[in-house]
Give the backbone structure.
Amino acid sequence: MAASAFSNTLLSPISPPSNKPISYQHKFPNSRSHPIPIQLRKTTPLTTFCTSDAAANAPQQQDTPIELRYPAFPTVMDINQIREILPHRFPFLLVDRVIEYNPGVSAVAIKNVTINDNFFPGHFPERPIMPGVLMVEAMAQVGGLVMLQPEVGGSRENFFFAGIDKVRFRKPVIAGDTLVMRMTLIKLQKRFGIAKMEGKAYVGGDVVCEGEFLMATGSG
């Protein structure tokens, strides 16, 4: 009798509501049956904890302010170093920074397109779009950074943009865009001073312009 009272005392915290049959308790005649209800009580909070823990880790990136999520482009050559190589000056220097450079092979550079660029008042006043010919010129200047190096034998006094081929404009470039340009040397004929380059320009990972470029080094 004492054992039965003791068992009922232990079972009382998890006993069913009074409006349900008391016979539920008779299925557990002694205290050894407690591991089953105790295990059920531990399982529920454990499952809830795992779910809430995963939910807490998921939005960590969203909690980071947007201005801290995206790193800046690296700087391999700044504007002062670019000016030492290219002869162009305002308003026709169209390269702001070099972010990757393989001497005599390739270069990747950026042009920050802003509403203050001097071509926007006329192209076009109501819809500022960077002229395609200036995109080509900017890419040619990146090619010049590859060519005007000791590894290639170029000279800023004897360097010319000789021709373009297979140029395609895929998307408009507007004020506020960052134009990322890659120029790669694919063929060099030092005897004739002719270089063939492949160029692609991107905005946000999308190709906006591409083509083949001919560069000439020699007397003009």
Residues 124 and 136 are 18 Å apart (CA to CA).
